Give the backbone structure.
Amino acid sequence: MRLTRLAKASAATPRLIAGAAREVARADRLGTIVAAAFQIVGATAALGVVAAAMLTFDALLEPEQAAIGLTPALLALAFMTALSGSVGALQTQQHRLLGERVSQRVWDRVLDTTARADLFTYESSGFATALERVQQNAVTRPFMVTTALLGLTGSLLGVVTMSAVLVGVEPLLVPILLAAGLPAVLLARWASRTEFAFAQRLTASFRRRTYLRQLLTQRPFAAELRAFDSTRPLRERHQTLNGEVTSEMRAQVRRRQLIAVLTTVGVAVALTGALLAIVELVNQGRIDLAEAGAAAIAVRLLSGQLNTLFTSVSGLIESAPFLADLHRFVASGPAAPPPGRKHPLTERIALHEVSFSYPQQDRPALNSVDIEIGAGEVVALVGENGSGKTTLAKIVAGLYEPTTGTRHWDGAAVPAPDIRASVSVIFQDFVRYQMTLRDNIVISDGDRSASEDAVTEAARRANVLGAVRELPHGLDTMLGRDLDEGTDLSGGQWQRVALARTLYRDTPLVVLDEPTAALDPRSEYELFADVRAVLGGRAALLISHRFSSTRLADRIYVLDGGRIVECGTHDELIARAGQYAELYSLQSSAYR
Ligand code: ADP
């Protein structure tokens, strides 16, 4: 059983090495060639050291028969030793650059995958966990693989040349040293398996710890954490996680230390065996002292090369599961959607019998929902927390596909990328881009060439212009303090910037999920007193808890537990004296 596994693993190793080599070469072709050249120079220099040593011993022991004198022999030895030493240092720096390029390539592939993943995939927990694991390793593994690959090439060259030298002296020395490598490879397999299992066991703890570190360090959380004095309990949780990680890591480090000791002992035993064999050969008179001296140096060098060879192979074997994990991740998720095409809205978007369930949730978030939004209409969605408003908004915006039911745009089933291209959304938890105000606006439509007029128009509609005048560099002011260089805005100002962003993306339908939650009463009044002018003829789906804004809608849908329970204008719903009327009177009684 173990043997079959081993055989399978050994069969997979050349494929893995070839695959990794391809990745490295693709990441930086020139860098790879330079690094390979260093390896060749290194191996040649090592061979030169042995040859010069042999000449030196000859000149010392048998000056009459020596090919060259002692001084040139010593100079050659010094030169070769210096060359082989300096190549190492140059290589290390070259590897750094190559490692960075490989890491960039791996990151590009990870980012391609995350960009391709739709929101539904993103929200399934398996995806997040796999992403976290890949992210943690994407930073370190490519460098390991690059170093291992280059080490492998160099040491292979070295092993071949040194073996050739030793075969010339005594062929028996080679198999003794090579045999010492076998246990090292087996031990590397073991190390690799324990390392991957260790990483898998700890992914969840690492994620939780990273989250706590964000909470404890990042600016958006600083105020609340201090107000509740919750730094201490959060630090305690962090400490507990640290404890878990430490104890797991201690066990893993002990395993790896054991493996390292076993590997080193194996190599040392082989080295001693070979040196004893040389002594025996001299005793038997089969080789002379100069040959013995050169052989001893060659054995030492070969042993060093073998060590690098085995370390490189173990490094590659150890990285194999992580690379496989990366490839699985990159291959996972749906294919990249085709680019969306914007459609005009001439009649309506209509959802019919739409139900939707989140991944790993038994209860559907939406159940047989029918709604429609006509061209230019303002439609409101009200309901208590958790009734499904945001979920429904995301389906309207093409971010989720209905689990069952249909979504028709002007009577036709339009693909989701087209829907996304035809709808703008502002979410409750909109993003505060730590970029200039202009970038905060134009980022919603990267394809459009940013004309000053269009940006100013969006800013005017969203009532950002007043704020712009107060900013030190106008539209080009950096916003936010996260990167330590910008001007921060108030919550309401940020919300207006987000609204400007939504309006800048020129689409026939906008979805506004709580667009006024952070606005002061005057701003909210101004926005809704003339909401149709702000929208400039676009249709809107408006989610709001403020009935002062929803009452202006052409039609209001009331959601409860994922179902539409009422529908009509404000007056119709009040007359009906149902849930809407109840919520409305609850809210207005607060003002009476
Ligand atoms: P609302 O916007 O009306 O507050 P939501 O649409 O956000 O309601 O949520 C509707 C239901 O779906 C709730 O029960 C909520 O717990 C659930 N839900 C929302 N988002 C997710 C998610 N990403 N994964 C699983 N369940 C979710």
